[in-house]
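Q: I have 450 residues here and want to know how they pack in 3D. Can you give me a structure?
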Amino acid sequence: MGVERLVVIGGDAAGLSAAAQARRLRKADDLDVVVLEQGPEISYSACGIPYWIGGLVEDRDQLLARAPHEFAAQDIHVRMGTRAEGIDLAAGEVLVAGGERLGYDHLVVATGGKPFRPPIAGLDADGVHGVHRLADGADIRAAIAAGAKRAVVLGGGYIGLEMAEVLQTRGLEVTVVLADPLPMAQLDDDMGERVCAAMCSAGIDVQPNQPVREIEMGPDGAVRAVRTDEASYDADLVVLGLGMGPETALAREAGLALGSTGAIDVAHTQRSRSHPEVFAAGDCSQTFHRITGEAIHVALGTHANKQGRVAGSVIGGRPARFAGVLGTAMTKVGDLEVARTGLCTTQAEEGGYDYRTELIESSTRAGYYPGAAPIAVKIITERGSGLLLGAQIVGGPGSGKRIDVFATAIWAGMTAETLAGSDLSYAPPFSPTYDPVVVAARVASRIEQG
C-alpha cells in the first residue's frame, strides 16, 4: 500500500491541530501531510488582536504561535499564500489557484469563520475594519497613528467590548451602537444591564436598539458617520464587532452537507456526514451543545483546537470524539470581568427545562483585604433536581475565571447541592471564607430543599 495524503485547507487552530495530531500518529512514510494557507501567516492568535491594537501586546509577532519551518521539521508541508479554489469530491482532489489539482486520501476543511457583514450601504468604505486577521489589526493601528479621534464600534459582544475598551485606552472617543437592547446578548438582561452600566460609567457611549442603516462617507470615500434611524454618529474609524459566521463557500460549492446552523455538518468524530473521507473542524463546522444536544455554531479557538485534534486522531487511526460545548467564554471591559457558561434563561426555556435562577452579590476577596471588588453570580438550575444548567458572572478583577468552576461542575453533571459542599480554596487575597461560587450554589440548593 502506497503513501496516503492528508490535505488540510486552512492553516490556523483547527487545521494545524489536525495536521500535527495526524503526524504524531502516522509517520511520513505512511502519510504525506500538506496544509494550504491562503494568507501570509499561520497559527496566530486572532483573540489577541484587540490587545495588540491597544498596545498591551507590543509586537505583532508575539501573536504568532508557530512558524512554517517548525511544521516542516515535523514533515508537515505548509504552503503559504496558496488558495484552494475548489474541491472535487468525486475525484478526491483540491483545486489550487494556478490550475493545480492536488489529490487527497483524507481532507480536512478548516476554513474558519468570517465576520458578519450585514447588507449596509457604505460598509466597504475606507476606515471600516473587521478584527479577524492580523492585517485588520495593522490597519486599525495605522488609522490611530494617522490621527483617528472618533470610533464607532458596531456590536456589543466579546469583540465589541474588547475593541471599545482598547480604542478608548488609545485616546479615542468611543460609541458602541447596538441593534439589541443591551450589550452581551449571551447574558440574561439583569447581568447585561450591569455590563452596560459599567461601560457608561467608564465613558463609553452606548446606543442600544439602533440597527445601523448606513455608513456615511465623505467625498474622499472615507467613513464620516454611522447612521441609524435615531441619529448619526460621527466617526473616522468604524470597527465591526457583529460576530462570526462559518466560512463555508468552498464546502457548499463542492456539495458537502451543511447543517441547520449553516456550518458544515459533521459527526462527533468531525467526519462529514455526507462524505466520510472529508473532515471539518473549527469555526467552519457545526457542533452541539453538551446539555441540550442541539446543533449550534460557536466560533472559539478552544473548540477549534480540540476539534482539529479529534479529526487528526481519527485520520491517524486512533478513535476520538468531540464532547460538545457549553459556550464557556469571558471578556473584560475596563476593570469589569464578564463570563458565562452553559444555558442562559432563554436557552433553558427553549430547551424545555423547568428552571429557576438565583443571583447573589459578594466580594472577590475578603472584604477587609485591599482590592476587594464586587462580584455578581447568577446560576440557573433545574427545578426539582437542582442540576446545574448555567452560570453568569459580572464583577471586578478576579471574578471572571471563577466561571471555570461552574463549567467543570456543569460538565460533570453536578447539582447545586454537590457544588455547595465542594472544597474550594480560601485565602483573604483571593476569596472570602465562602467563595461566591459556593455561596450561589448554597442559596440555590437551600431554596430547592426548602
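Q: Anything worth noting?
A: The first strand starts at residue 4 and ends at 9. The chain has a mean pLDDT of 96.
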